[in-house]
Amino acid sequence: MVSVEEALQIIAKNTPILQSVALPLTQTKGMVMAQDVLAPIDLPPFDQSAMDGYAINIHHEKKYTIIGEVAAGDGKEVRLKVGEAVRIFTGAMIPKTANAVVMQEKVTRLGDSIVLMDEAVTGSNIRPCGEQITKGVLALPKGTELTPPAIGFLAGMGIREVNVFDKPRVGIVITGNELVEGGEALKPGQIYEGNSKMLLAAVKGYGIETCTTYQVADNFMATCEVLTKAFLENDVVLVNGGISVGDHDYVYKALKALDVEPLFYKVRQKPGKPLFFGKRGNKIVFALPGNPAAALTCFYLYVYPAFQKIMGQLGSGLERRKLMITTSVTNTFGRALLLKARVLQNGEVEILEGQSSAMLHTYSLANALVYVPESVSEIHKGGVVEVLVFPN
Ligand SMILES: Nc1nc2c(c(=O)[nH]1)N[C@H]1C(S)=C(S)[C@@H](COP(=O)(O)OP(=O)(O)OC[C@H]3O[C@@H](n4cnc5c(N)ncnc54)[C@H](O)[C@@H]3O)O[C@H]1N2
Ligand code: MOO
Predict the structure, then answer these.
(1) ipTM of model
(2) For the MoaB/Mog domain, which residue ranges apply (predicted)?
(3) Which fold has domain 4-18+167-310?
């Protein structure tokens, strides 16, 4: 049995980063760049007007003669003599012979000429060629997460494809004879299968789309078969249920039979004690406890940082904050507690009712887990606790 922190370290050490793939930029949201990208062009690619107004060739008077017009996208070169102006619009190419742009609100228009209200300032309202970045310079380094602005920046340089660390294919293996699908009538002893839907939603919440669900009865051979298939088809396997010590819990035995290297089995925590983590070649497997809240807590705490690592992201799990608690907590278990909780508007954290690992009711209202380390037996109301905050 390992501690929470040991379990996290073992996962971080043993989770591989997936190979890189070249993908169209439009499919890379949230992925991490596996290459440096150098600017293929100057940005902007030409001197650009930052305003709607008039490009001028400055002289000592305030009156300028308008000799033409340049709109955004026009490629024509207009030659301005000293004292001349062209009507120009935001984003349009500045004539080489112009040295300032004056906003239209700052001029008086008189037929084919304008009179400036203020002194012209050389270079004003011009975005010079290469102002943002110049050709050949490092635009974004390897390891950058492709956020919307990063995607926009690369697209703005004409880049259409980028090498990124691949997203994992995730298999969710659901075990249990008692499980039936919603829509069917429950027979005595049966319950509705909910964890695959919950875990699928959680996996997709991290932008991972390739997720397959498998279901198997409590049977050793069938469990071996479905796990073999899940390992073949996925990079990460999440097994749900059947990992405890009951006579019908076959997951540990099946993982052993399939030569999965156990990296830990059981964590000193409540809920989620029976969690298993192992490796088979370059594939990793988490066997999550079947109790729904225990499964989800293990997912947030351990599977999420593994996903980050496998996709080359820099983060290491849920954001940790120190917050004031609104009630006292006692820990008589000698294990770390992970309590369903809600961070309130005022920044304090409230422990929710219904902490049983079988219950999801109040988990639906939670936005965080309070982490009570195994060495802490009591925290008083108003004390400071460590809070693991769920991503939005
Ligand atoms: N003698 C012991 N018994 C148990 C121990 C122990 O240390 N000694 N640990 C308990 C803890 S803690 C947990 S957690 C559970 C974990 O057991 P399993 O991983 O084998 O899970 P199951 O027995 O298959 O299921 C537990 C519970 O969850 C329900 N379940 C399972 N899958 C689903 C699903 N897909 N959707 C909805 N609900 C599901 C299942 O019906 C059970 O009620 O073991 C304790 N026992
Ligand atoms: O994981 Mo179990 O659910 O600790 O009760």
Answers:
(1) 0.98
(2) 171-309
(3) Molybdenum Cofactor Biosythetic Enzyme; Chain A (3.40.980)
